[in-house]
Amino acid sequence: MCGIVGYVGTKNCVPILLSGLKRLEYRGYDSAGVAVIDIDKSKIDIVKTKGRLTILEEKLNQNPIEGFVGIGHTRWATHGEPSDENSHPHVSQNGKVAIVHNGIIENYLKLKEFLIKKGYTFASDTDTEVVAHLIEYYYDGDILDAFIKTLEKIQGSYALGVLCLDRPDMILAARKDSPLIVGLGQGENFIASDIPAILEYTRDTYILEENEIAIVTKDKVEIVNTEKEPVKKEVFHVTWDVSSAEKGGYEHFMIKEIMEQPKAIRDTLTGRLPDSGFEVNLDGIKITKEDLQKLNKIFIVACGTAYHAGIVGKHVIEKLTRIPVEVDIASEFRYRDPIVDENTLTIVISQSGETIDTLVAMREAKARGSRTLGIVNVVGSSIAREVDDCLYTWAGPEIAVASTKAYTTQLICLYLIALDFATKLGTISYEDFAKIRDEIKRLPEKVEYVLTHRENIQKYASEHFNAKDIFYLGRGLDFAVAMEGSLKLKEISYIHSEAYAAGELKHGTIALIEDGTFVIALATQEKLFEKMVSNIKEVKSRGAVVLSVAQEGNTDIENVSDHVLYIPRTLDILAPVLTVVPLQLFAYYTAVQRGCDVDKPRNLAKSVTVE
User: Fold this and answer.
1) What is the rounded average pLDDT of the residues 364-379?
2) N- or C-end of the chain: fewer Cβ atoms within 10 A?
3) What average pLDDT does the structure give for the chain?
4) 307 phi/psi in degrees, rounded to 5
5) Which CATH number among 3.40.50.150, 3.20.20.70, 3.40.50.10490, 3.50.50.60 corresponds to the domain 451-598?
6) Which Gene Ontology molecular function entries are recorded, alphabetically (predicted)?
């Protein structure tokens, strides 16, 4: 996820672009840049840099540029590590076209090969640069025609802003699967990824739809389709304040990020799990069948929420590949002299890619001869650079300290790894592979279903937000998810909470249950359903109030529970992706009821970079 802003008018656009980028920096903060058609319209000035927006501001203060038409970008890296060269805007070979882009061009390698054969050279490792060169390739005097031809060739998701030196009065913009709006002013007009970028200047906007193209000049905005036919648009008048708009109208970043999970899962799956065939595409990871046959163990090493994802990963990888998997807390891993050698694969998981305990654990494993594989969300982060293989979660920036969409996309990556290894080892039949593949592809819409029924979860949170203690119970994969649900609750609501394996109740834990104790029981695993029902009866008989989570159709659980939340029916192995969503929502609504600072809970930081 990246931020785009553009301006056409009669004022110097640079301060306006910087103001917009400040409002959008939450969408990406590993680099930033602007492209401006200079005041005498003789060239496109580009200033861009790796790092935060303040570095770009310093550069512009030292070497000012000025113009009435410009585009800006704040980047969240997907293709190519954060660097000056990979920063946006990108420019065509002849310098006449500059573009900014949010999204992923899935077929960029094929297009890059085509353009190289046509004599084009590339200055970056990004997927975006192919778009600038492709527009130049098709340009014969009509920039709109060249833009449309380019849109017909590229595949994937995009929001694009385009400058052309031959049309110094205009910005072109288009979108597909990535947001883009047009701001309507008086003698000036704007484009932006999000409303907050332009809210200081106008509250009247067009919300661009799929495959619509905006032709923006200072006095006029035309919207056309790819046939150049006019599209009639209604003006959307913004009534939000700026802080709400940055969160897309949500009260907090956490709930916004919970609601973004269907898209994050889709993005993480994009291009990796073909609709047919018997393979998984892991972005160039070259772990062969022979490599896998040499393994005697896989370690999964992580902290916090990522550690809980690793516990799910252990279940899934062992089930599908029959390779032993051990999950370890990163802060403990290197201090216990782990048995790691060249026949070990170490998978490290970190949202930021900078978690110091995980980074040091990865280095320890590598020093002992282990091959390392990272699952991270930040391109060019320390872990991404240092592991032997890296698989990215395309979750986009996660602002709230409590991780939500990073967790679900980490699960998706672990499923993909397990499926890839199983197909190579021959430990899964095509029928079972196809069944899991097809059901994984349905997960985004099933998560959406859970999210559309969140009012019941909010109701239960309003009834139990004053609880002193809350216990989470589960068996198998449900226990792994119970640990994550409990962590979410305690870190943002400050309620004491514990997760227990339900089968351990009789071994001491049940002593904590008394009249009125609130228990959340997860019963989504079909093979363990009856045993979980028995465990629920045990706590109910001692006075517990029970909220159960089960798959649709398992209505028997209503006979032993005070409240029941149903998730859409899915394969047991995939249930964690759905089960965690109501637990995230329960934690969120509980914290809101208690008046807690949801996005910035006390004593916690987003990325732990010190031991």
Assistant:
1) 94
2) C
3) 93
4) -65, -40
5) 3.40.50.10490
6) carbohydrate derivative binding; glutamine-fructose-6-phosphate transaminase (isomerizing) activity
